[in-house]
Design brief:
homodimer; 343 residues; alpha/beta; 434 Repressor (Amino-terminal Domain); Rossmann fold; 3 domains; six-stranded mixed beta sheet; 13 helices; 12 strands; 42% helix; DNA-binding
Chain lengths: 343, 343
DNA sequence: ATGAAAGCGCTAACAC
DNA sequence: GTGTTAGCGCTTTCAT
């Protein structure tokens, strides 16, 4: 509404002139140096405050070789021009923001093409940020390894993989897949669909848990029941509709996000099948909507707030020059109506 | 995992030395100056790329007096140490991130105490960001006015108020309140509870719409039906439980967020009342969960993606030195089962 | 207790 | 076409 500041931004010289002292005195005063006479210090402080002067951090950082900015990178599908929409991504970004704020760091939120995760390194190379938190490995474990190999301080939300040079923090995906699938089997499900793109490491680990649970039960995995859909609801719905239409028999669904699970529910209903009576459904993430949905979702809970703290602490550990071991955070199944306990 | 870079960060001098030229040549080459011989330019480019060198933006910005960083400020309740959790805030942050990325700006995500919105101005004063987008006016219209008066480039998501010096972008809250309440009246509701803290301007405007709709219908507003709850589910649930227990008669609820609406639904059910048969409920925001919830929510849709674009464009207008007029974005009621059309 | 001056990494006159 | 040099706004020796 009001038009902008043509008023050149104040700088230390201005304060110095107004206070009738030199810039070094202002600098020292503003930084609380005890070298400066307490009352001049106070006077300069007052003056600066009354003029809303604030030290230029760009210049200060350059001089001090410091920087308190961490980049949080949310990859996106450039082809689909897909926007940040999955609530899980948004809430983990919120959790990281909280953790960084608590520790006095600034957060630069960036989006990069999921096919070029390595391009995030420019944020570090250019000094915009002193470290990177990347949300998800996507399909580029190798690029992340390369970044770590050239000593870019980076922590990744995702699964722990063999031959991993970077620090990852993630939920226990195998355990999540295992618990979800075991629960469905225990309910008596015999043919359980797996919804998620196993080219993503996290999903692949959940898929391992799924297969392991099937193996325990002596059940054969059926490739026709694996739906390699991305974290994107339109595609998920289409794939589920197709599965329903195909005539392939199934009585359970394990979906790799709550949103995917709810799309499955809708597709099933559209096909005239009841949840959980005909088909039980288990989701992943335990976002708030899982509580309110119809039916409330049985889902694998991910500790989002803890995730934010762990990601940040791991990165700060790296920045201190220490090694940061990958962390696998506990997950647990939350029982609700989409797949209740067997009666 | 891997430990950090003790390797001092490369700088232009290093590239210059390795290329056997002066820093100015490197600078020009890297900035694509045609003054430089095409092949030396290419050679230097290759060298820099192969070493992952990237111009130090802190220094560059200092020299060029430029900066492409916009701060997005999410206020929070410091007393409650409440975290970013309302899905609406998170999704508008996502929308702003998309809009800024498209336009080549960096986004600094900051949290400030909702009682000290003016503290966000330091981000500008210190040169961290060239402009501010603040999510919500909260209870400090005056602080925002002060910031605008001293020419801080700021745009606020929120309602348009009288005597407003800053640029706001927001949904049409009066229309939203009007449509929601009219719809409930049209269904035959006679006693409609209003759930939301009218000390917040946006909520107050919705409340105006609510009162206007009641007036149109010749209905008397009853203060006992106004629940001044914050955007926080625990408090909302408690207030709704209390209303149910109080014996105050009501047959409709207009809640100022979808999350509040769903808490109302849960409280009503706990009190043995059906939605929408006994009490119809209308929410606000039209977040994804409104589609999936039980019952799906009739709610006022806010154009989140558009909001991101408008906020960013308004700020860029200010930064260009032009005036940016406040914008009120259209909202519309989405009919679902929590308050279906009258039969 | 305060000031003068050098320099953080970069760019852009101004030389040659 | 390329090098030399003077700052961008700040902190910090080193003087006084």
């Amino acid at each position: 509404m009001t038009s902008p500041s043509e008023a050149k931004r104040l700088q230390m010289t201005d304060i110095a002139r107004l206070a009738g002292v030199s810039v070094s005195t202002v600098s020292r005063a503003l930084n609380g140096s005890t070298l400066i006479n307490a009352e001049t210090r106070e006077r300069i402080g007052q003056l600066a405050r009354s003029l809303n002067y604030s030290i230029n951090l760009g210049a200060q950082n350059l001089r001090l070789q410091k920087n308190q900015t961490i980049a949080v990178v949310v990859p996106y599908d450039a082809q689909a021009r897909q926007h940040i929409s999955d609530p899980f991504f948004l809430s983990i970004v919120g959790a990281i923001a909280d953790a960084l704020t608590d520790r006095g760091y600034d957060m630069l939120l960036s989006r990069v093409d999921a096919e070029r995760l390595d391009s995030a390194a420019t944020l570090y190379d250019s000094g915009k940020a002193i470290g990177l938190i990347i949300i998800g490995q996507w399909r580029h474990h190798d690029q992340l390894n390369d970044m770590a190999a050239r000593k870019v301080p980076v922590v990744v939300w995702g699964g722990q993989l063999p031959q991993q040079l970077y620090c990852s923090v993630g939920g226990d995906n195998v355990a999540g897949g295992l618990q979800a699938t075991r629960h469905l089997l225990q309910r008596g499900c015999r043919r359980i669909a797996f919804v998620g793109d196993a080219r993503l490491p996290e999903v692949d680990l959940r898929h391992q848990g799924y297969r392991q649970a099937l193996a325990e039960a002596g059940s054969q995995p059926d490739p026709a029941l694996v739906l390699p859909v991305p974290f994107e609801i339109i595609a998920a719905r289409a794939a589920m509709d197709q599965l329903c239409a195909s005539g392939t028999a199934f009585d359970g669904v394990f979906a790799c996000s709550d949103l995917l699970a709810l799309q499955a529910v809708q597709a099933l209903r559209a096909a005239g099948r009841q949840v959980p009576a005909d088909v039980a459904v288990v989701g992943y993430d335990d976002m708030p909507l899982a509580t309110y949905s119809d039916p409330p979702l049985t889902t694998v809970h991910q500790p989002v707030a803890l995730a934010g703290v762990e990601l940040v602490d791991a990165l700060l550990t790296l920045l201190r020059g220490e090694r940061a071991a990958p962390r696998v955070l506990p997950v647990h199944l939350v029982l609700r109506d989409s797949a209740p306990l067997p009666v």
